[in-house]
C-alpha cells in the first residue's frame, strides 16, 4: 500500500513538471507578445513542450483530464496560427 502511494506521488510529480513547463513556455510567449516583441523562440518552445505533453498523454504515459488536453490544444492552435500569417 505504501509503495503504491509512493508510486502515485512520483507520477503526480512528473505530470506536474510537464504541465509547469508548458505553462511557463506559454507565459513567456504571452509576455513577449504583450511587449510587442517577436515571440518566435518562446512560441517554438511552447509548441515543442505542448506537443511532448500531448504525445505522452495520448500514449498513456501521463494522464491528463480532457479539460487539460483541450486547453493545451487550444493554445497550441492559436500559436500555430500566428506562424501561418
* Oligomer state of the chains in this structure: single chain
Mean pLDDT across the residues is 87
Spans of at least 5 consecutive residues whose pLDDT stays below 50 are none
Taken from the alpha-carbon principal axes, the silhouette is: elongated
Strand percent estimate: under 5%
| Percent range of helical residues | over 70%
The beta-strand count equals 0
Number of DSSP helices?
Answer: 3
> How is the main sheet built?
none
- Using only CA atoms, what is the Rg? 15 Å
**Helix/sheet category:** mainly alpha
Straight-line distance between termini: 54 Å
Q: Give, in order, the helices and strands.
A: HHH
What does this entry show, briefly?
The protein is mostly helical. Helix content is 85%, strand content 0%. The mean pLDDT is 87.
Reconstruct the topology from this structure:
Layout: H1 2-34, H2 40-59, H3 66-84
Helix pairs in contact: 1-2, 2-3
Attribute tags:
85% helix
How would you describe this protein?
The protein is mainly α and 85 residues long. The chain contains three helices and no strands. The chain has helices at 2-34, 40-59, 66-84. Helix 1 (2-34) runs antiparallel to helix 2 (40-59) and helix 2 packs antiparallel against helix 3. The radius of gyration is 15 Å and the shape is elongated. The relative contact order is 0.13. The mean pLDDT is 87.
Amino acid at each position: 500500500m505504501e509503495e503504491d502511494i509512493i508510486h502515485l506521488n512520483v507520477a503526480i510529480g512528473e505530470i506536474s513538471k510537464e504541465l509547469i513547463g508548458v505553462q511557463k513556455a506559454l507565459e513567456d510567449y504571452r509576455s513577449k507578445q504583450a511587449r510587442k516583441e517577436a515571440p518566435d523562440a518562446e512560441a517554438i518552445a511552447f509548441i515543442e513542450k505542448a506537443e511532448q505533453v500531448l504525445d505522452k498523454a495520448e500514449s498513456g504515459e501521463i494522464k491528463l483530464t480532457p479539460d487539460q488536453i483541450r486547453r493545451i490544444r487550444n493554445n497550441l492552435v492559436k500559436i500555430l496560427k500566428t506562424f501561418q500569417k
